[in-house]
Amino acid sequence: MSGGFRICRSCREERASGQFRRDIRTRDGLARDCITCAEAEIAGKWAASIEKELSADPSLATATRTCPKCSESKPLISFTANKNGRNGRNTHCRACQASKMRDWRARNADHIQKQQRKDWLNRKYGISLAEYDEILGAQGGRCAICREEGSVLRDGSTRLAVDHDHATGRVRGILCLSCNQAIALLEQYDHWIENALTYLAFRTS
Questions:
Q1: pLDDT tens digits, 66-80
Q2: Dmax of the chain from CA atoms?
C-alpha cells in the first residue's frame, strides 16, 4: 500500500495506510485497527484461552511433547486442542502453526481477498461475484451516475459500491462511493437536494 494516513480505532494513533490490513467491508478498504493492535488483540485472546485450558487441566503445563517442525520440547499447552490428535492436541506447536498460517496467507493473499469479496457480496446483497461483474459490465465498468471508474482509496486503489433498495434489498446498480452516499442522503432526507441547491444559491458568490 502507498500513501495516506488514518487513525487506529484501538490505539488512536495516526499511522500510515500500510500499517493496516485490507478489509473489503470498510469505506476505504482498510481495517479499522492497525496491524500492531490487531495482533495484540489476537494474542490477548490466545492468552485468555490458554488460561482457561490450564484452569481446567493444570497437567497441560507440565506434560510435554516435541514439535516435529521446530524440534523443540514444549508443554502440551503450547499445542492447540485437537480431539483427533495425540494427547488431544495438534501435531505442531502454536508458534509453528501461526508461522505456517502467516506464510499461507501471504502466498494466497489474492485468493483470500477474492473469497472475502464473494462472501461479502453474497451475505450483504445476495448476489454472486459473477452477478456483480455482469452488472458492472452492463454499466461499462463505471459508476452508473457520474461515470467515474471508482473512488480512489487511501492505498491508491479504486472502489465501487453496490447500491441497493434498503426497503426491499434489491440491487439497483454499482456506484462510486460519493454517488452512493448522495443517493442515501436523497432517500433519507426528502428535501435534501432542494435545501442543498438553496444553500449554494445564497452562499456562492
A1: 999 999 999 999 999
A2: 80
